[in-house]
Write a structure and sequence with these properties.
This protein has about 325 residues and is mainly α. The chain contains 14 helices and no strands. It is globular and about 85 Å long.
Length: about 325
């Protein structure tokens, strides 16, 4: 196992290198950059000239867009990365690592809770749908799945805000803390503040879960149907085993084998999805900051954020491989 993990980590370094080259090249080839976006209005009004814009670009290190300039910029960026320096964010005027560290936890909390709820809801619904194939329950779950897969995040979030915030007034529509709140620094004040934050996060988590469980439900249903039609399940039923042990002892364990492979992409995809969700609900998490940085061409922050997602993907892939060997003892990871 240790040899396998070390080997995978070594391969992951090469993958991260390739990902960084692609991301950096794509970001540098964007039609506009941070300087263009920042001084566009002043350039139109004649306050500054194009020569000043070019000088600012050279100052930020993004003036030369030729192959040599992009390659040189990447070499400088990767050299700083080797020293543990992700650079200084153009937009936020802080070290990229500091901005990510300070703002990732709220996004991580939303993503973690959404992931747990996704598994707790989607897997039982998928199993129930498979064991009641072609029933009203199965059709209802299928329709619910298609709705979750088809609806865009921004559209569904807008509907949820309209219904539960504007019409019913049950939940706040944006932010993390009520604008009029004034909490003390004692235990009671901290508990009240925590409750306020939870109240604000209910709708974002609801949107994230509802739009993400559809794919997992469908995947669970498909795998469960395949397992239920296997020969060993028919043999277990022929021996007189009741339906409950057949489903939850024999079929469910084998259904989990392909499901664990999905974990590799769930957590980074939720973080990526937070970019839109946080923007709609006005939550200052890492996703919203990344979206704003991308719009303004903040190259250091965009690079740092995407490398953060790439590392999450690699960790998720490694974890899913290890879990695969746990749920299926026939698989060995020593090679």
């Amino acid at each position: 196992m240790l040899k396998y993990i070390v080997k995978r980590l070594a391969i992951s370094i090469l993958i991260l290198f390739g990902v960084s080259v692609i991301i950096y090249t794509m970001v540098r080839l964007m039609p506009t950059d941070y300087v263009d976006n920042k001084y566009a209005s002043q350039l139109q009004s004649g306050t500054i000239k194009q020569e000043d814009i070019d000088r600012f670009k050279d100052l930020y290190g993004i003036g030369d867009t030729s192959f040599k300039g992009i390659a040189g910029g990447y070499v400088k960026w990767i050299g700083n990365l080797m020293k543990g320096d992700l650079g200084l964010s153009f937009k936020y005027e802080k070290p990229v690592g500091q901005v990510i560290t300070e703002n990732m936890w709220i996004s991580f909390a939303i993503a973690l809770v959404a992931t747990i709820l996704q598994f707790l809801i989607a897997i039982p619904l998928g199993i129930s749908s498979a064991t009641h194939q072609y029933s009203i329950r199965d059709y209802s779950v299928t329709v619910f799945t298609m709705i979750g897969i088809s609806l865009p995040t921004y559209f569904f979030a807008a509907i949820v805000i309209k219904v539960f915030s504007v019409d019913l007034g049950w939940f706040p529509s944006n932010g993390l803390i009520s604008a009029t709140a004034n909490y003390s620094d004692d235990l009671i004040g901290n508990l009240q503040k925590f409750g306020d934050i939870v109240h604000h996060l209910i709708l974002p988590i609801f949107v994230s879960v509802l739009l993400s469980i559809g794919g997992l439900m469908r995947y669970t249903r498909t795998n469960m149907l395949e397992v239920l039609n296997a020969d060993y399940i028919r043999t277990a039923r022929a021996k007189g085993l009741s339906e409950k042990p057949v489903i939850y002892k024999h079929a469910f364990r084998n259904t989990m084998i392909p499901l664990v492979t999905m974990f590799a992409g769930i957590l980074p995809s939720l973080f990526g999805g937070m970019m839109i969700t946080e923007q709609v609900f006005g939550i200052d998490g890492i996703g919203r900051l990344a979206y704003q940085a991308l719009r303004e061409g903040d190259i250091p922050f965009v690079m740092g954020y995407n490398m953060f997602l790439a590392i999450l993907t690699i960790i998720g892939t490694l974890f899913s491989d290890i879990m695969y060997s746990v749920v299926d003892p026939r698989v060995t990871l020593g090679k």
